[in-house]
Please model this.
Amino acid sequence: MGRPGVEVQRVEGALRGPFIELWVAHRIESGTTPEAARRLADDGTLSTALDRPDICAFIASVEGRPAGYVLVVDSTRSPLVDAPCVSISMLHVLPEHRRQGVATALLATTLRYADRVGAGHVASLVPAHDRESNRFFARIGFAPETVRRVTSVSALERRLAGVGASSRRPIAQVLQRRRDLRARGRRVPPPRTIG
Model:
């Protein structure tokens, strides 16, 4: 028996509901509680995002049942180089439909979309801890380009403002202390005499 056929469609109209359910399943699999995932789905953010002209979502179905989705964003590869790029913001396939060609079909659709909008590159945001996804993208030719690090605004403000600065040294002093310790570690101490 061969693989079941995979059908991919753009998320519009009646497909928004199944897309949101897949998104909720993805969030839960990623560690979000079902209640929190449902709250995020119901607050209207996803529908608003799908209405944006720079965002496009596609849903894959196997034998008429939703199996996975891809969310792509029109962007540039770099803010300093005006090279059109399509970025895969999210790609998810339900566990029971993996290894059935669903991700490949979604990527083929993404490739056709990139060609249609004139993008010369396709990028993907892959969580650093997701080894399976990283292996998958590496296997099909995606190379690492950057490491994206994220923090909350409040955490960054605290760090930059030096919250608790009274108990911490200014950064220049810390750096100088490290340099001094390194320099001391490189020097060979004079031999000690016993006597």
